[in-house]
Amino acid sequence: MKSAIIAALIGSAAAFAPAQTGKATTALNAFENELGAQAPLGFFDPLGLLDDADQERFDRLRYVELKHGRISQLAFLGQITTRAGVRLPGDIDYSGTSFADIGEGWSGSLQVPVAGALQILAFVGALELGVMKDVTGDNEFVGDFRNGALDFGWDTFDEETKLSKRAIELNNGRAAMMGILGLMVHEQLGGSLPVVGEM
After folding, report:
1. What are phi and psi of 38, to 5 degrees?
2. Which segments of the chain have a pLDDT < 50?
3. Dihedral pair phi/psi, residue 192, rounded to 5°
4. What whole-number distance in Å separates Cα of residue 37 and Cα of residue 41?
5. End-to-end alpha-carbon separation of the chain, Å?
């Protein structure tokens, strides 16, 4: 009787064991060795944006990731700098509003006069349409905007150093995207943060 009960328990426990399946290969494996698939996550695509994607689609998404990372790095440093009290000298408009009178974060962006906001929008548009793209067609990799004019010693690096520096930029951009998102959320929640100060 005891052996029948034990056999029944073992048989019922087997019903909850995970089914053994073969390792499936997907289109995701095509990008596992691309720059940015690094420890600890490896290749990370939780939304499946690269399911059945080709190299052109991957390059487009990498371009967008780099651009947003670069913008986020500027935004994060802008937040930290202005919250530390560093401001441009002088006035932002002819009515006497000084740069120091403009607040930080979202609330500060809403205090910028309309003419100033339009100038910022025009400047960003000019950068987007004329500067921040591969104008000459000679880019070495996705996101390379040197256009034959800016080098800063890039051509003196060996391939391993170039890959390392590109991976560092990619990871710093990813961290900055999370950082500026965190600052924006905390600004809405209020309170105080280390380094940043009062939100």
Report:
1. -125, 160
2. 14-17, 19-28
3. -135, 145
4. 7
5. 70
